[in-house]
Amino acid sequence: MQYTEQSELVDTINKHRQYPHISIDEHAKSKSVELSASIDGVTKVYLDKRFWILLRDAHLGRSKQSSSEYLLCALRESVKRGAVICPISESIFLELLKQQDLYTRRATAELIDELSLGLTVVPFDQRVAQEIVGFMTKSTCEPKMNHETKELVWSKLSYVLGVVHPTSTPFTADVELALQKAFFDHMWDVPLVEMLEHLEECDILKGHSFQNIADNINDLNRQHSDEVKNFKKVYTNEFRGGLSLFMSIPRLWIESEYQKSTGRSHVATEAEKLEHERKLHTFFGNLITEKRVALSLPTLHINSLCHAAVRWDKGRKLSKNDFYDFHHAAAAVGYCDAFMTEKPLMALLKQRHLELENDFPCKVMANVNEAVQWMEEIIVG
Fold this sequence. Notes:
Number of domains: 2
Structural class: mainly alpha
Order of helices and strands: HHEHHEHHEHHEHHHHHHHHHEHHEH
Largest sheet: 4 strands, parallel
Distance between the termini: 45 Å
Number of strands: 6
Radius of gyration: 22 Å
Helix content: 55-70%
């Protein structure tokens, strides 16, 4: 680290030491809210892996499609004038890590840095947790409202996999807190290219394969294929299955609210916690049959619709890439204005019984020429 950087870090730590009453979580949340406000009204265009590769090839002068070059120019112009931004998600990041050619991977990362302006959607699990807490907060009708989920859904590329802080340092509690906030501030603006340079020796660059999970789910779908008679029921079962993985979130929120209102912490055995979560799962499982509730949990709602659509098409098997695609869809359709993707995924998302086009304003496109035309309308607008 250069002397100037060291000096800036020390200054930042000293600044944060003046505000020991602000926790690291509160500091991180304030940065997210500030980021959300800064992009309010900016058109958010989510590109899947296919489109990032097409644009990267155009960026490198390798493209054989003039339409890809036009699209890249249109996006660059719109991003420069603050009309458009192209956020990524952890799924794009993980797919980027799977690219073996270091030259093209770096070129893709450079393009992501340029068009995303460092913007990412928070990870899938975090979004689900925020949506659940957001729903419960609204349902309590308390005068003091938490921030809307849409205000907390955006983060920076350095935290594309989630926020982590240095812990168990040899410093006092107040110094460690200041150090955590200074570290957060430093990481907030680290570009993706620099992140990849630091990660090249890590196992995470090997990526992750979902093939075994896909095979297991396909076996289960085949065993229960005779039960697939009503799409809404299939979707509800998928949604309830997803919810079952997150019931510790509302339980912990309830315990936290209890402590805030009474000043006493809630002490429970593991068995009592599990029972509480079981009841919460029943509660949420019944509520999601109401469309307004399902739509307030867009990440699980969209992901569940995608999985249900695969089960509904008994001739189709789930592939390992579907997990990435469905997460792309949940981030893009749930929180962006446009989604540029592959034709099969577009066809799935446009199925009438999914009703996504009616429930979300996101424009889904797979044709590059259509994307160019749409971007031209944005530029003119």
